[in-house]
């Protein structure tokens, strides 16, 4: 769940009223957010680095709010406030408009070299925007949040925002050999080639995580303006020349990436959130993007989509009985402007560009339920009449468990994952003979394979408890895993039973007796002749 | 012990004694350790009213080790005095003697000696008087002889300050005859034996009362694992509610059933290397139901069934990747798919409780393996209200009654709800489970009829 950190007082000022912590917590709960933590910069530094380092840090109260992972429109203070105000019916949802400029439209031309590394780009302009320090910080923070979430750590989409007044279009998005790219990156004082930058950023705590996206590729993506000024080398770093400051008035935004849909969504989110601060609020200036095949698109899309849903469908799915007008009101509170149409039973819902998460009528149903208030819904029991059945293997396991304990053995619960040595070397086997399933990305050696026998787990349990009074009598009835090409995934579980007796004397007769008892319970007679069981020595290993 | 020699002697002595006797005195008289007498007293007490014993505390003065040394050799100051010849002794030499430092200042304050600082080769010490009385030694010897009371309070505390005397507390018993006193102790029986019954001798024997304050002998029993006991309880609850147990005996799952069939997009963070255990061997699923796979692919990439879809390039090789299942919802998907193939549709209630795997680093609150509990109801016309109703019944059986529901997000359910319960101990609402109605994009490609809804909820056993 993404967490958004907002200054409490800023939040309350924008909401137009103050709340106690409990009241705000309650509001969040209703809306589907979670007020995770109330803290301050000072407290955060204090916790992480100690009290001395926290001296002089701000103790402005911060609210850390957990936001659902699919709500990109709630990832910044601006979005949260807008969402909550509409929810509380204090404001009407703004209508976002794309406008064509009076003068020339900004153009971004994509060359074919980008196709192999980062083919897609979108762009837009925020005209005559007014930043304050808080708005500026929020703007940068939102980009970072989007990068971490929908952009999948910049791999899918990378955002670049630039001071348009320092540049001159048309812009070119191309890909070049790293040695041919040279510019002064953000916050540095001299120019570097791309190769040098890749080296320098290896030790940068923030940027080193993104290097792998383009590292070792023959061509790196790069955006130039008409004067050859580098805007950015996505997804790594922007150029210093077009750096945005609090005083920037016109912002050029470009998003590049490997997922076209996500790039468009990301652009829409940024411009809808911050166009609030443009001279003409909630308007975004269009930009044109020309693809290598000559096709040109205008962005941002800011598409409004209409869906028609029957009122009784929503009532039925939620379990309520609201009139179509009421339902339309509920949806409008969730930023889904709705009105009753047709025969009075249909509701036409307008889905704004900020709600890219609404892709099916069921999303609309959920929003209606949220606005209604989950805890206001009447509970009912389904009339589904079914006869229950146990899974036979589990039924047998339960019966045996109780009898094993009655026989004086204690149940253990051990990990299904272990090291290779545990199931091979330590048991005198070669790993290839075990038909074990191997894990490709274990964090530690303890998770290299799935167990093919329960014995190592029980032995480890005994080792950890060897100081306890003897004897130790342990058992476990649980699954092991082996490869099996007759199964659709290529592996299967087997239910195993394992028992271990640990004492100063090995007590073979005790385990033997336990086995006899188990067979007795399972109604399996001793002796091969009766179709029963026999015990034989195994060759040298288990 | 009560029938031991010391006890018998004690009883005889007591019979002869007037009023009573002191345990310490008796011990000295018999030449045995005081502890032995105390033991006999205690065991006689256990037999009933044979004796009465009163605990007494007496204080005695004893010499410390240093005190004993001085009683023998004399006080430091006396020794200093004695070691000074008539012609005197150099102070430096005096100080080097064993009792020198301590004795010198005491002898000086007693005015037994004097120092001539003007002597030729350094300060010289001379006797002032001809002889001295070693009072300290005399006093200590008095105490040693057991006559400490002859010393005054002030004198005793002075010696204690010098760490030559200590006060010792001695606990003794004053033993007197009890109401059932007798010199012959009959042994009390602790057990009734078959011989006593058959001979009838039990009628004449005294029996020792049971000590109910001691613990009994715990039976040598086996035990069930506490977490698995909870699992059994939950299985029971589901069965009581009419839920059928799904097969979940496959830890290994393909990405298809674990993610794609559940309408979880291929670029979703949960499919990351960080959160999921992927397999090296077998790396890919061998078989997938291809018709169904194509429908899933279309729904993800283009939409359909009333959905816009995610609009991305869905890749088959991504879906083939094998992993250790991250939830048992993959088993639910398989069960629902099987249900969808059966025509006509019959409503069903399923549950499972089994192990799931997450690629986490282990710490106090995170495990790489844990157990997930999942319940599913598939029927016509199920609503969010029904889901809440089922949850209420389910949690009530667990003893959790105060519930609140909060909007949440899962890739495969919409609407989704987090279930909260009020924890009396922590005095706050804590999350106890997650739930929702499965998305049509998940159910319809399986072939389930359009008016069938499937509600589901899950929680972890470990919580």
Q: Can you give me a brief rundown of this structure?
A:
With 542 residues, chain A is of the alpha+beta class.
If you had to describe this structure to a student in words, what would you say it looks like?
The complex is a heterodimer of chains A (542) and B (463). A 7-stranded mixed beta sheet of chain A has the order 13-12-11-8-5-16-17, with no helix packed on it. Chain A has a 3-stranded antiparallel beta sheet with strand order 1-3-2. Chain A has a 3-stranded antiparallel beta sheet with strand order 6-14-7, covered by helices on one side. Chain A is built from 15 helices and 26 strands. In chain A, a hairpin with an 8-residue loop joins β9 and β10 (192-193). Chain A starts with a strand and ends in a 21-residue tail after the last helix. The model of chain A has no long low-confidence stretch (mean pLDDT 90). Chain A folds into 4 domains: 3-69, Phenylalanyl-tRNA Synthetase, Chain B, domain 1 (2-Layer Sandwich), CATH 3.30.56.10; 97-299, Phenylalanyl-tRNA Synthetase, Chain B, domain 3, CATH 3.50.40.10; 305-369, Phenylalanyl-tRNA Synthetase, Chain B, domain 1 (2-Layer Sandwich); 392-533, 2-Layer Sandwich (BirA Bifunctional Protein, domain 2), CATH 3.30.930.10. Chain A is 28% helix and 24% strand. With 542 residues, chain A is of the alpha+beta class. With 463 residues, chain B is α+β, with helices and mostly antiparallel strands. Chain B has 3 domains: 1-60 and 167-209, Ribosomal Protein S8, Chain: A, domain 1; 65-165, Arc Repressor Mutant, subunit A, CATH 1.10.10.2330; 229-460, BirA Bifunctional Protein, domain 2 (2-Layer Sandwich). Helices cover 34% and strands 23% of the residues of chain B. Chain B contains 17 helices and 16 strands. Chain B has helices at 5-16, 23-30, 34-46, 65-73, 76-82, 91-96, 100-109, 135-144, 153-161, 194-199, 226-240, 255-258, 290-301, 316-320, 329-341, 384-397, 440-443; strands at residues 21-22, 51-63, 89-90, 113-116, 124-127, 165-177, 244-245, 252-254, 279-281, 322-324, 348-357, 369-380, 403-407, 413-423, 428-438, 452-460. In chain B, strands 7-11-12-16-15-14-13 form a 7-stranded mixed beta sheet, sandwiched between helices. A 3-stranded antiparallel beta sheet of chain B has the order 1-6-2. A 3-stranded antiparallel beta sheet of chain B has the order 3-5-4. In chain B, a hairpin with a 5-residue loop joins β13 and β14 (413-423). In chain B, α4 (65-73) packs across α8 (135-144) and α5 (76-82) packs across α7 (100-109). The two termini of chain B are 55 Å apart. The model of chain B has no long low-confidence stretch (mean pLDDT 86). The interface between A and B is large, with 88 and 92 residues. Chain A: Its main location: cytoplasm. Chain A: It comes from Lynx canadensis. Chain A: Belongs to the phenylalanyl-tRNA synthetase beta subunit family. Type 2 subfamily.
